[in-house]
Amino acid sequence: MTATPTGTTADTDTITMREAFAARATALLDADPRLAVVLAEISTDLFEDAAAAHPQRVVNVGIREQLLVGAAGGLALAGLRPIAHTYAPFLVERAFEQVKLDFGHQGTSGVLVSVGASYDWAEGSSTHFSPRDVALFDTLPGWRVFVPGHAAEVPALLDRAVASDESAYLRLSLRHNAEPHGTRDGSLDVLREGSRATVVAVGPLLDNVLAATAGLDVTVAYTNTPRPLDTAGLRDLAARTGNTVAVVEPYLEGTSAAIVSGALADRPHRLLSVGVGREELRRYGTAADHERLHGLDAEGVGARLRAFLAAG
């Protein structure tokens, strides 16, 4: 790939993850003639300048999400590095056959960037919810998954995704932490050390985890790169905390359980998975309501962790 520009192109303290993504993608389009962006109406306003500057490499296919992914796969076959972008349930669940075939089966790679996360647009109801997206990617080989917790983390994660020859999924959300965190290489970022358990917080749930663990004797580690999960770092931290581990993730509860258990399979261990429940919540409310009802606010996470530690 052509060398990408350094730094960010916008003030990521005041913009959303989606805006940070669009600004960085526009800069990358200017720098790299192999990059192309495929849209399905969503975020077209954020790519107006890019489309005007690169009309052959910014394509809007309309509200046709299967075509969105198929077109991106075709661009990859033609030697371009595609970025396909729309709402998570349409990009992953609706177009999963195209993800499976037009990338995996055809032996191509690209970057899929979603918005909406598990329940960001709560008033849009279940059609716009996607807590199962990362679990679906776990059924496919070779996909990297990035889950930023702050807009300032987005540019570097997009750079990594674009520069790689592997396929990548970048999961953007309106939910966010107060400050950016994370490491450049995807290793676990240890923010607090304790002895009774290792708690891994994924993406925008870090602040809730930090609040939930205040006063608890636990290690808190952060990742915005859950795939591939830093299992070597996890093994090291778990060894120091009695091989007792909790994973708090902003998508379907238990999504990471097999990976964590596999990493610790050679030693007795305890694992708590905290995430979005499988029950469909039909009184939609707000994203904050869903976070609370799924037990992912600080109070809910704290209650689960305290019960887990007490049972040990």
Automatic annotation (TrEMBL):
InterPro entries for the chain: PDH/Transketolase, THDP-binding, Transketo_C/PFOR_II, Transketolase-like_Pyr-bd, Transketolase_C
A molecular function annotated in GO for this UniProt entry is: magnesium ion binding
Any one Pfam family match given in the protein's UniProt record, by short name: Transket_pyr
Q: Which Gene3D superfamilies match?
A: 3.40.50.920, 3.40.50.970
Indicate the segments annotated as coiled coil, or none if absent: none
Source species, domain of life: Bacteria
The residue ranges of the Transketolase-like pyrimidine-binding domain are 15-176
What protein am I looking at?
Transketolase
Show the taxonomic lineage. Answer: Bacteria, Bacillati, Actinomycetota, Actinomycetes, Glycomycetales
